[in-house]
């Protein structure tokens, strides 16, 4: 047997905090070595933090990473462990996103990322250069290129993130060249349900290429992107280990690399494919001999014992229900996003929320409180300040709901009426209009803007992080006010559809029993900027609105195609009414792009959202003739 203990680490990095990021990695490296880890894996762009975006254009930003990589090598020199860490290098006019192999106090090699994504939230090909098959160069005296690394325990193939997502990635030629252990360094953002996709992909790649895969992922949040960690260890298609998500740290497990080679020998299809690759001119990837650089200590490793000490019985079922998994993942991700933004910017002392007594601000408060319970477990409410700013249209029911949940959470709650200011601003607006009355919409917007102005004044004076509370569905159709409820320093649920907001609140009501949630849910959703406002009456039923948004924004369907899909989804609704909803949605969506491009930084939890710099990039000024049939 050739037993190897593999450690997968997730470090919560901050972009540009090179020393602090490296210090965190060194602390985990020491713990791994103390626990007998043979090879420790750290995430993509460990030293720089991710995503650095255009910061990589600064030569100093790139050059400053190398001394930290050297320090990591120097300080881990006494450890009998091999480490693979993510680093950026500036090489002959290129910026390369690399996996660095470190052992025995030396940087043994750099393997650059080959596949650079430019879809969804990624812009890597805009700034980074690509590694190439057969690349063999030298950077600061270190081999840089398409290499494998032979240690006393086996042959290692480092790669970076997107390389594993391509069927034409480097894994194929490297395993055909003798790689037994593929080490993938990733910074893969959290997306709803994506953990299952990762798990399945890694199992498929490990089976296809008959290898062991150690997949490491970043954790934490930077600039609205949330990373959930969750590394995987898979041997030839068999799941071995999954590391905890949404938390910094590492986990380790033992595998027998002789088993990988045995299974490879048994896989006749793999062998035939390899023979075909060689016959067609496939070039073997060079192997760097590192066997004398470090002598790993594996004598104390023991064979991994299966659950129940049986190879035939199943492992304990720890899977969550679909509802628990969805809700807990969203809540964990968003609370991590709020907390990391609050802490890493180092500009704020307290979290502030304009609590309306409605669903959106309630969910935002509960997410902020979830973070506060982790940051200040002894008194989480002390980290949050809630304000209720009623006008003449605010109901006693919403005030009672807001007051109740603030009391249950131990959050400071202050009532500050805007009614007198609303009257003054309305009169000023009438004067500016030459005595004409303002429109009903203007009356509503005055209230929203007064609340936002007061939140900004509070924020400026006390160092408070003003959390914006709007949801994605209403934002998509402009059911929000520029300078008002669209504003804030961080948009917490701006990429959460309204139907999901309500689903989460139902879940939280069931799991927490808060009376404040029950009181909010007892009243129809509406902004209370006019008498008896109900959001679904002014827009459309939220399930239909969310379906329109998904079909248009994600599936890229035309209005006619959307109507066809909605007819199948909602047969109880008359076709003529559905047609009106589709026409209304598309019109409002196109007219509202100018609004949502002005919204604050938002937290991302899926592939579809309204942050123009991240995902759905649409021109503000555009015609709609292309949508018409015939």
Automatic annotation (TrEMBL):
Enzyme category, top tier? ligase
Q: Which residues form a coiled coil?
A: none
Binding residues for deamido-NAD(+): 445, 474, 595
Residues the record lists as binding ATP: 354-361, 469
The cross-references to InterPro entries, in alphabetical order and at most eight, read:
C-N_Hydrolase, C-N_Hydrolase_sf, Gln-dep_NAD_synthase, NAD/GMP_synthase, NAD_synthase, Rossmann-like_a/b/a_fold
Q: Which GO terms describe its biological process?
A: NAD+ biosynthetic process
Sorted UniProt keywords: ATP-binding, Ligase, NAD, Nucleotide-binding
What is the E.C. number? 6.3.5.1
Report the domain of life of the source organism: Bacteria
Residues annotated for L-glutamine binding in this entry: 119, 188
Keyword Glycoprotein applies:
no
* Pathway participation: Cofactor biosynthesis; NAD(+) biosynthesis; NAD(+) from deamido-NAD(+) (L-Gln route): step 1/1
Instruction: Provide the catalytic activity annotation.
Output: deamido-NAD(+) + L-glutamine + ATP + H2O = L-glutamate + AMP + diphosphate + NAD(+) + H(+)
Name one matching Pfam family.
Answer: NAD_synthase
GO molecular function term, any single one: ATP binding
Q: Where is the active site?
A: 44 (proton acceptor), 113 (for glutaminase activity), 161 (nucleophile)
**Stored CDD domains:** GAT_Gln-NAD-synth, NAD_synthase
Q: Which family does it belong to?
A: In the C-terminal section; belongs to the NAD synthetase family. Belongs to the NAD synthetase family.
Q: NCBIfam families this protein is in?
A: nadE
Quote the function comment for this protein. Catalyzes the ATP-dependent amidation of deamido-NAD to form NAD. Uses L-glutamine as a nitrogen source.
Name of the protein in its database record? Glutamine-dependent NAD(+) synthetase
What species is given as this protein's source?
A: Myxococcus virescens
What taxonomic ancestry is recorded?
Bacteria, Pseudomonadati, Myxococcota, Myxococcia, Myxococcales
